[in-house]
Design goal:
about 350 residues; mainly beta; five-stranded mixed β-sheet; disordered N terminus; binds the ligand Nc1nc2c(c(=O)[nH]1)N[C@H]1C(S)=C(S)[C@@H](COP(=O)(O)O)O[C@H]1N2; binds molybdenum atom
Length: about 350
Amino acid sequence: MRGRSGDRSLRGIAITGGLALLSGVGGRLIGAQRRDVSGERAAIQLPEPSGPTVSLAPDADLKLPGLTPYLTSNSDFYRIDTALIVPQVSVDDWSLRIHGMVDHEIQLSWDDLAKRTPVETLVTLACVSNPVGGDLIGNASWRGYRLDELLAEAGPHPDADMVLSHSIDGFTAGSPLAVLTDGRDALLAVGMNGEPLPVAHGYPARLVVPGLYGYVSATKWVTELEITRFDRATAYWTRRGWSAYGPIKTGTRIDTPRARAKLQPGSTAIAGVAWAQHRGIRAVEVQIDNGPWQPARLSTEQSIDTWRQWVYDWNATPGPHTIRARATDGTGETQTEARAPVVPDGATGYPSTTVTVG
Ligand SMILES: Nc1nc2c(c(=O)[nH]1)N[C@H]1C(S)=C(S)[C@@H](COP(=O)(O)O)O[C@H]1N2
Ligand SMILES: [Mo]
């Protein structure tokens, strides 16, 4: 980050695999965050979800060498934080206020939540600042409370169209009210992969919305849902040049072979992941050099809200080669070949990997 205004980089604050890549100053220091809620978190018992807990379809994970696992562990999950110090929020101090353009303002404490029954669902979360081929994307099971139910209790006014979620650290995200209430599994999440949310991923509560980039939906350490309008409120990253709306674009990534790999001739698995959250992935195709596009084999579709793995068996011939891939979503639309940068609303273009065989 380069300063408070005119800052257009979410990438500078990306933290992946526990490695901090902090460039310059920015973010905000949270006042007097001297405590540590990790002990409290370890003792929390999450309520059991209604319905079955998540179980994986056969072949949802093809388990190929070099291919990203279907499920991302909490420790491998990417992180994006504007705060330089991870907020430490105790369940004793936490509450969620739903207010603004509503009939009944609501305030929920942790104990109020415990009286409700959560659901559990798989959602692939993605960052708008993920470049083509990048790793700011991960897939986890989330346990939480349906936002459509919580919002219905507050009674949003008919002319409201935005839910501005506020974090304790000052971060805000603006989500279309219509997306949070259209029946998808938009959650006030308290659990990630069967554990309480890790502190760095928003403990004790955050939002998770299938189909929206994190900067417009996935508020961590969430404390307020302000029901408002896009023509009245502007969220954190939108003030810094990013789009007010952030639906996730269809994308795919080549995981193996790695860029500049030296390969033996013959049978070679080309494999990766593809995503189009809440539309689903219908097909992935692979192209070698300027050859025809060939269909890849897909992993079993676990849900339209999560990525799918794909693999293409290539008979590698000696020489240098360029491998490209493209995905088609559940509506039949193929991702665009036109390259776009991550600003203002997400990168586009086909991923490409160059290898040498022989
Ligand atoms: N409080 C807060 N919530 C936040 C952010 C943040 O900086 N602060 N980053 C958002 C962005 S840009 C993304 S992509 C997701 C990332 O969630 P993760 O860090 O759990 O992967 O969180 C969103 N929620
Ligand atoms: Mo993000």
